[in-house]
Known about the structure:
By secondary structure, this protein is α/β, with parallel strands linked by helices. The chain has a single domain, classed as Rossmann fold, CATH 3.40.50. It has eight helices and six strands, in the order E-H-E-H-H-H-E-E-H-H-E-H-E-H. The protein has helices at residues 20-32, 43-53, 62-69, 80-85, 116-124, 130-140, 156-167, 186-201, and strands at 10-14, 37-41, 87-89, 108-114, 145-149, 171-172. The protein has a six-stranded parallel beta sheet with strand order 3-2-1-4-5-6, with helices on both faces. Helix 1 crosses helix 8 (186-201), helix 5 crosses helix 6 and helix 5 packs across helix 7 (156-167). The chain starts with 9 loop residues before the first strand and ends in an 18-residue tail after the last helix. The model has no long low-confidence stretch (mean pLDDT 94). The chain binds flavin mononucleotide (FMN). Residues 15-18, 42, 44-45, 47-48, 51, 115-118, 150-151 line the site of flavin mononucleotide.
Amino acid sequence: MSDAQPRRPWIVGVSGASGTPYAAAALRGLLAAGESIDLMISRAARLTLLDETGIAFRDAHWRDDLAQWLGWHVDAEPQAPKWLDAVRYWPAGDLAAGPSSGSYPAKGMLVIPASTAAVAGVRLGLSKDLLQRAADVTLKERRPLVVVVRETPLNTQTLEHLLALSRAGAVVLPASPGFYAGARDVQRLVDFVAGKALDVLGVDHDLLRRWSGELGAAQ
Length: 219
Ligand SMILES: Cc1cc2nc3c(=O)[nH]c(=O)nc-3n(C[C@H](O)[C@H](O)[C@H](O)COP(=O)(O)O)c2cc1C
């Protein structure tokens, strides 16, 4: 028998809501913690990624594009090749991909950011792409599912979908940063949301400054 631990990744689904920096922060946090990741990026998320970062993400060159998105210059960042090896990338249209089956080993899933369309699709079990199917599988297998929804204001339908997802076992984590952790720059606010998501998954990180019980300590 082999002593090698079987790979058990976190599935990270990036859908087409604004907020690709949240996804980047969560990916960096998971990889820094030594976790494996199965990554999928919806078709609409390619548009938000292009809009927010200028990166036209390509399935065939995902390693290069991911490294650029996460701000890794492979030559300057010694950890980058190791971290990239911990990522498995699946095209969003690949419904035969591993994470579309409950028998595929996974720890759980993070949808970050989650569009209202993805929220609706997961709630209704539409499985219109790999992201929605993987989230549906995560729920049916009773694995942790964190949905970082990003929209404002929220209509009644979305609120009902979120309530149903919460009742089905998902954790609904709105992309709403807390300013008590120190809000000197935007990245801190982004990291706060990603850090809260990693807290739910039980992954150690140093993305956010925790409340100490002392007013003003973050200044
Ligand atoms: C630049 C841009 C920003 C968007 N921002 C949001 C957003 O913040 N929240 C949201 O729910 N949808 C947003 N959308 C709309 C979604 O992309 C759209 O509903 C899409 O169908 C989502 O598909 P997906 O869930 O498969 O990624 C945005 C679209 C674009 C092009």
